[in-house]
Design a protein that fits this description.
about 80 residues; two-stranded antiparallel ribbon; about 0% helix; 4-stranded antiparallel sheet; mainly beta; Immunoglobulin-like
Length: about 80
């Protein structure tokens, strides 16, 4: 939240157990624009900031991978 955002947004997630977490942001062409998390993360509720100060307005996506779980969500950066 928030979404749409300018220039930062917070991504919140919960883990049922300790997992290797990878969260990346990418543009509609599939090009990675940021790596937000790559770490072993304990179970519980977590959040990470996505700072898009150097990115153009438009649609972006973030993908979270934790163990066998993968989810992709859309973000809208509005200047």
């Amino acid at each position: 939240y928030p979404n749409p955002f300018n220039p930062t947004t917070t991504i919140r997630y919960a883990l049922p157990h300790r997992s290797h977490v990878l969260i990346t942001a990418f543009n509609p062409l599939g090009q990675q624009v940021a790596q937000l998390v790559e770490a072993e993360v304990e179970a519980g509720y977590h959040e990470v900031q996505f700072n898009a100060t150097n990115l153009a307005s438009g649609v972006y996506f973030y993908r979270m991978q934790a163990g066998t779980f993968t989810d992709t969500r859309k973000l809208l950066l509005v200047r």
